[in-house]
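Minutes, methods subgroup
Present: GH (chair), OT, SY

1. OT presented the first of two proteins processed in the latest run. Sequence and structure tokens recorded below as shown on screen.
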Amino acid sequence: MTIAHLISAPQRIDHTLNAMNRSAIGAVMLVAGTLAGSLVLGAPQEGPTSYSAAAASLPWTGADDGLVPVGHSVVRATPAPTAELYLEYVPPSPTAPPPPAPTPRPAPMVRIAWPAGPAPWSVTIPVPIYRQAMVLDCETGALRMGLAAYGHYYSDAALFAYENPDTRAPIMGPNHTVLQWGDPYTNFVGNVNGSDWTPTGYGVYYPVIVSIARSHGLPNAYGGEGFAASTVYAALAARHPVEVWVETNWMHPWLGTWTAWDGRRVRYSYVEHAVILTGVSATQVRVNDPLHGTQYWISKGQFETVWRDFNDMAVVFQ
């Protein structure tokens, strides 16, 4: 009996498999050795061109040693230059400049009728500014400024002494109206330090002022009612101050009429006032106001509206 017959069937199978495994491993090693010899140690079958083409068709693995097969020996070739990558700089597209900031517009100017500055052209007269010395002697204060413009200087009291005040009280009617009182065309009416609303005092009109101006250095002074505004403006342009009858603070209130002791009809206002004009422009007149001793400009329209309440009464100093 052979040894094979002495081994049991399972053992024979294990033995057979082990033999086959050893044979397979040997075969793999033989093939690997043969292939390595062909690639590395074997002589090239074709020229460099064929080798280069074959090498180019195979993927490159491992480190770049710069090894190439030349004959049956290993030769170190010159390393290939290192490749350098550059990124092309692309400048950003130019952006449109921001729109210029809008030029700030100046705030609109507000034109104030009173007080206001003169127009581009104007004529002004050097007249001193005086404040009236007594409560109701505005007419005398304006007269004093008109005389002083020509170098004739007087006090309010000295001039007022020529106005012969009529201090009798008025006869009142219904609704606080005056029925009868003195004649301001001939005398100062009422108490000069009284009240024009009560009323205990009033004022004086142009004839008395003209008379005093002529007797105190200005014989050519003249006055009246119904003056055209153009006549007043022409006098101012010729540098002649003009006293005018208006109302306090350029108000435009109720007007009435009383009968004087001598029978004259007298137009009146409880805020009767007199100022002196000392300048003119294309649209305005300059005012010296004795009430507070101030000087300012007002529009011609405003002046003419209020001046009309006293029938355009004026005295021109010349």
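2. SY then presented the second protein from the same run.
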Amino acid sequence: MWELVKAGGWLMMPIVVCSVMVLVIVIERTVRLRYAKVAPPALREQLIDRLRNKPALSKTLLLSVKDASPLGDILATGLLYRQYGLESMTMHMQNRASVQIHKLEKNINMLGTIGAIAPLLGLLGTVLGIIASFLAVTEGAMQDPTLLAAGVSQALITTAAGMFVAIPALVAYRYFQRRIVDINAQFETEAGLMLQDVYDYNLLSTAQLISETQPLSTASSTPLDEIDLLELEEEPLPVHSQIKAHVSRISKKDNTANMS
């Protein structure tokens, strides 16, 4: 193996580095994107059952569910904002789903990049090997075929190594892309079913009643007797109204004086 790397020239080093990166990313994403880890089965049913038995779930429990899995993060976020209605639950779950999908796509684009540049590195090695072969011909390689074979072997080895790295990288890239699409669809399905369960089992009314009654107890901080006094207190008349009232009183006095 080391002899092939030496025969391929210095361009074999970046190709080897790319192959190691592909191997590490594939192992890491395979472990991270397992369905049992990303979307545990029956998680939604367990949350709904606990919510039906005990409508007021503790915040500690929901936070532990959020930290356990990406799907738990989405569903628990919706339940944390349950008292604000279905629209608020939907908006917050969509935001968390976007964040989780972005995290799940980590390093996947790197596979596509390696799959694109590895053949180019091999092609560059091919060009450099052919150039070395022609230089050997001009230096008298017809008498010594080993000088010509060195350039040809470099061209063939780098080309094969580039394809050997690029093909698995592209296959893994497409596979993980499809896995992300399937996981996103599962997130949307589970979130929609939870909203439907919350509405069907009337699990939203209690939380809404609490949120609607709280502002009533804290909205009016002024005592009732002060409010009554403020309402009974007469507001002063504007200036032009006072002038009109004064003129009308003077005219009444003049009329009574004339009649007398």
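Chair's summary of item 2: Residues 2-212 form one domain.
Next meeting: continue with the remaining queue.
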